[in-house]
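Posting for a labmate who doesn't have an account.
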Amino acid sequence: MRVTAMVAGVAMMLVACGGETAPEAPAADAAPVVDAPAAATTGTTHEVQMIQEGMEYKYVPAALTIKAGDTVIFKGISGGLHNVQFYPDSIPAGSAEALDAAITNKQGPLASALVGEGDNITITFAGVPSGEYKFFCLPHQTMGMVGAITVE
């Protein structure tokens, strides 16, 4: 009986650990997940890298001046998971709704989801008023990972 139980246990582990399983099919009544459409891009695309160098976490560049309609791609380079989250009290008046709509793959209001190395966050600044947009990385804010985008 003891041997039978051990063989059954080993067989269960092999089944659980070995081989791939087919992905589950979505439920017939489940609606597809679709991001809200962002405002159209009309300008230049800029890149901001999200980096860890030694014990320093930073956006490179940390300050960027763009034109209304430009797009900023935040690229995860090193340092684990990063995001872009805008300070609600440090963006131009009347800009929160348009800015929030421009953030795809959101974690919350005015905040992108966390992304890893090699992943991107794209934000288009079309339909937002000119002014300064201060932001931070939620996991690394206390380590000084902050930045600002000035929209002309």
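Reply:
Got it, the structure tokens are right above this. The chain has one domain: 45-151.
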